Amino acid sequence: MGTKLIIDTDPGVDDAFAIALAAVSTDVELLGVTTVFGNVPLATTTANARRLLQLCDRTDVPVAAGASRPLVYQAARRASGVHGSDGLSGQAGSLPEATRPLEERDAVSLLVSLLEAADEPVTIAPIGPLTNIAALLAAHPGVRSKIARIVLMGGGVARGNSTAVSEFNIWADPEAARRVLAEDDVPCVMVPLDLTHQCAVDGAWLAKVAASGSLGRTLEAFTSEYRAHYRQVLGYDGIVMHDAVAVAEAIHPGLLRTESFPVTVDTSAGPARGMTLVDRRAVPVEAAGRPVDVAVDTDVDKLRDFVLSRLAGGR
């Protein structure tokens, strides 16, 4: 069947592209989707995830709601200024209503049951704050052997977006991120801002998505407020589809080139809170954290074509 995959998400415009990418890929066995607070509050991220799966005709995929706040300290703000108040540039109402009921069990319970039932290790793609994944690893250590790898979108090597040095998903719950990235032993791929910005797409690419069919038209319609933000960031009409880059790697291992570096997360209350500290020294001396595969490069045209062809219904 291909890659067994679970997505943990906070939709979010780029999350919508990522969910659709996995949902329509016939070489992916999408076992479940779990939701977390992040770009917008939990109730909204959960509704968006369910309705996005309905859009993709994936009523077979269970959705469970997870953490509504960080493990320790409440975040100071959300990303609604980037994604719009409903997470989808004000266009969430265009999505069909979900017919599959929300799971009564919480996200961690669903994750445990899916992992325990799997007959081979499962890839988890967390593309929001890492609260649910940290809780899973802390409370259910026995499932580690059922996780093939964690491919997460988050962090930055030399840049931030929520602060000068901190990327949003990590900044939203640094304690959870530290647990997953620096203090556990499950194989982990970190897809940072540095790489996702290299994979930005322009208005012409988005026009091709819109022209590809009804799914593409709906996804492109979600980008209006997101594009307004990224016009300022990029200096041209386009977007950074952060989460779709990570899910592309989860689907197609090796699409991104990675290098192993010790990584830890700053959990102090100071200005570096949420910073991912990637130790790139040739010979680290008392390096903090543990080795993480950090995505550093890709064939950008191939990556863009991969996402576009899948969203357009190709393989």
List the SSEs and their pairings.
Layout lengths: L2 E7 L3 H12 L3 E8 L6 H14 L7 E3 L14 H4 L23 H11 L4 E5 L4 H9 L7 E7 L14 H5 L1 H9 L5 E4 L1 H6 L2 E2 H9 L2 H8 L2 H11 L3 E2 L2 H10 L4 E10 L10 E3 L11 E9 L1 H12 L4
Helix pairs in contact: 1-2, 1-12, 4-5, 5-7, 9-10
Cα separation of the termini: 14 Å
The poorly predicted ranges are none
CATH architecture: Alpha-Beta Complex
Instruction: Quickly count the domains.
Output: 1
Structural class of the helices, strands and pairings?
alpha/beta
Average pLDDT metric: 94
Sheet with the most strands, sense and barrel status: 9 strands, mixed
Q: Can you identify the CATH superfamily?
A: Ribonucleoside hydrolase-like
Spatially, the strands of the biggest sheet line up as: 3-2-1-4-5-6-11-9-10
CATH topology: Inosine-uridine Nucleoside N-ribohydrolase, Chain A
The gross shape turns out to be globular
